[in-house]
Amino acid sequence: MELINALGRRKSAVARVYVNSGKGNITINDRPLEVYFKAETLQYIVKQALELTNTIGMFDIKVNLDGGGYKGQAEALRLAIARALCKIDAEQYRPVLKSNGFLTRDPREVERKKPGQPGARKRFQFSKR
User: Fold this and answer.
1) 96-107 pLDDT per residue, tens
2) Half-sphere exposure of 38 (CA within 13 A, CB side)
3) pLDDT single digits (tens) 19-76
4) From the CB of residue 81, how many other CB atoms can be counted at a distance below 10 Å?
5) What is the DSSP secondary-structure string of 66-110?
6) Residues 6+ apart with CB under 8 A from 63
């Protein structure tokens, strides 16, 4: 199998994934998954697409993660892995991943702060007199 790459984004996090056949090692920014994401919930989010398609232990995944917080990075990585699996075998993996919503990019972004206000939507207290 040749090297397959895919991209995943969430909020301001960007995950570039390189998938190759192997023993199931996931390396993020030259660190193992368990070291990079210490919380088990985040490790679960990353592995969701692999568990759903029963491909844990079949592929070695090398990841470049950039930007955002740890939750956004984990969800960006999940999207990138799902997209890479679709490139590997679309007929087998795509219907399962699509029905669980792993191929949909979450479009929600932070709204910008407006000038003369304390935040994006918040206003200073109004005083009539």
Assistant:
1) 999 999 999 999
2) 0
3) 999 999 999 999 999 999 999 999 999 999 999 999 999 999 999 999 999 999 999 9
4) 28
5) ESS-HHHHHHHHHHHHHHHHHHH-HHHHHHHHHHTTTTS-----P
6) 15, 16, 17, 18, 26, 27, 28, 29, 77, 80
Distance of CA 50 to the CA centre of its chain: 13
What are the beta bridge partners of residue 60?
A: 20
DSSP code of residue 30: T
Phi/psi at 32 (nearest 5 deg)? -65, 155
- If one looks up domain 4-99 in CATH, what number appears? 3.30.230.10
Tell me the two tokens of residue 60: 């070695």
* Closest listed residue to residue 17, CA positions, set 78, 69, 101: 78
pLDDT band, residue 2 (cuts 50/70/90): confident
How do the domains of the chain map onto residue ranges? 4-99
Question: Which pair of structure tokens corresponds to residue 78?
Answer: 């999940």
Q: What is the pLDDT of residue 15?
A: 96
Please state whether beta strands 59-66 and 13-21 pair in parallel, antiparallel, or not at all (unpaired): antiparallel
Burial of 80 (0-12, 13-18, 19+ CB in 10 A): buried
